[in-house]
Amino acid sequence: MRILVVEDTEDVGEAVVHAFERMGHAVDWQRTRRGSEDALAVQEYALIVLDINLPDGSGFDILSALRERGAATPVLVLTARALVDDRVDALDTGADDYLVKPFDFRELEARARALLRRRQGNAVSNLSVGNIVLDQTARTVRLAGHGVELTRRETALLEVLMGQPNRVFSKADLLDQLYGFDGDAGPNAIELYIARLRKKLSGATAEIRTLRGEGYQILPPRSGTP
Fold it and tell me: Side-chain half-sphere of 211: how many Cα atoms within 13 Å?
């Protein structure tokens, strides 16, 4: 998943970005309201982690503008403001969740996972397609009950595909999900990761299919297939 982090404090921003990259997400980090608005103008995100106090404005303005144009992107607000009124203001403005600084990064990661699951329509942390099960919390994959060793990027790609079975993702879609603005990977990288996934998931009842000129999708097993 591709995540936008809006945070002007260097050490906090670095730690948040590292936490999400460790989870396998592509992350764009902006330190100002203007930079954030520029990023949102050209890129869609699975999640926005938004600080309120920015050097050139308020994160509430970013959130308000986002909701006014009908964007339903989940937003997790980070702020040092601990008063109940501040939390109510954030939620009423359109935030999906709220975390007060300083916070435990395990809680940040858990809240982010919950919002991403909600976005995908999943109530639990496991994604299942056929006999493939991906635990989004532990970042592990099992095939017919047996563990499969995948790299962080391979797991992230499989998570994108399994999050929406049957959907066709173009190479551009997948690059957007796996790499941030600073990523230098090209379309051939997606072909490589798809090939690796097919090899490591040999024996899966689900199929990772290539649609020439369109992209890739994961298909559940046909009716009657175990």
Answer: 12
Largest pairwise CA distance in the chain: 59
CB 147 within 8 A of CB 222: no
Q: Look at the block and give the residue holding tokens 């909600």.
A: 118
- Report the range out of 82-91, 167-176, 203-212 with the highest average pLDDT: 203-212
| Token pair for 150 | 């995948």
Q: Which residue in this structure is represented by tokens 């435990």? A: 104
Partnered with residue 5 across adjacent β-strands are 29, 49
Asked if the model's pLDDT at residue 126 lies above 70, the reply is yes
Q: How many helices (H) and strands (E) does the chain have?
A: 8, 13
Tell me which H or E stretch contains 134.
strand 132-135
CA geometry: angle at 172 spanning 28 and 158, to 5°? 80
Q: Which two tokens stand for residue 69?
A: 């144009």
Q: Are 48 and 73 spatial neighbours (Cβ–Cβ below 8 Å)?
A: yes
SS3 49: strand
Say what the pTM is.
Answer: 0.68
- For residue 172, give the 3-state DSSP assignment: helix
* Residue 209: predicted pLDDT: 95
> What's the distance, CA 166 to chain centroid?
19
